[in-house]
Amino acid sequence: MPVMAILPHPVWLAGFSALMIAAAFIDLRRLVIPNPLIGGLCVLWLLDLETSPPAISVALATIGCAAAVFAGGAVLFSRGLIGGGDVKLLAVASLWAGADAVPPLLVMTALIGGLLALFLLTPLGARIASRRTGAAPTGSRGNGAHQAPVPYGVAIAAAALAATLRPHFS
């Protein structure tokens, strides 16, 4: 009976997908993206890189783009505009997407994040956010607007899955 070989690249992609979905779920529930999850995504990327190495210029461009995304995210984090877990998740998503797909990744993340923020402004979104945070949806600025933190990891994970997996299914 012949033994069927398992190709490693689909295994790494499946692990990537599972960890991105976990990041989205955890961020939605707790507004936290655990560091071990980010570490797991990095390790899987390194394993994928080892088993199906691209040209050195492609790998270096990808690492450079991820570093630039991390640096830009660090600036946003320092100004209180984005969470630290979101910065790390977006940087590792950039590794997985590759240098060519970083611009679409960022655009999709912004669009999905904007839609998520708009959803949280609806009565249903406010109800979901108040359950997550445990606070009643009350106005905090005197204009009656409900302010809830946006679980941006959901948008990052959705965009990362789209940007990374789409080329494998076309």
What does this protein look like?
This protein has 170 residues and is mostly helical. The chain has one domain (8-165). The protein has helices at 8-30, 35-51, 56-78, 84-97, 102-120, 123-133, 152-165. Helix 1 runs antiparallel to helix 7 (152-165) and helix 5 packs antiparallel against helix 7. The protein is globular and about 55 Å long. The model is unreliable at 138-144 (pLDDT under 50).
Labels describing this entry:
about 170 residues, mainly alpha, about 70% helix, about 0% strand, globular
Q: What percentage of amino acids are in beta strands? A: under 5%
Uncertain stretches of 5 or more adjacent residues: 138-144
Main beta-sheet annotation: none
CA radius of gyration is 18 Å
- Strand segment count: 0
Alpha-beta classification: mainly alpha
Question: Which H/E pattern describes the elements?
Answer: HHHHHHH
Q: Averaged pLDDT, please?
A: 89
Distance between the termini: 33 Å
Q: How would you sum up the global shape?
A: globular
Number of helices: 7
Instruction: Report the helical percentage.
Output: over 70%
Number of domains: 1
Which helices and strands occur, and which strands form pairs?
Elements (H helix, E strand, L loop, with lengths): L7 H23 L4 H17 L4 H23 L5 H14 L4 H19 L2 H11 L18 H14 L5
Helix pairs in contact: 1-2, 1-7, 2-4, 3-4, 4-7, 5-7
In short:
By secondary structure, the chain is mainly alpha-helical. The protein contains seven helices and no strands.
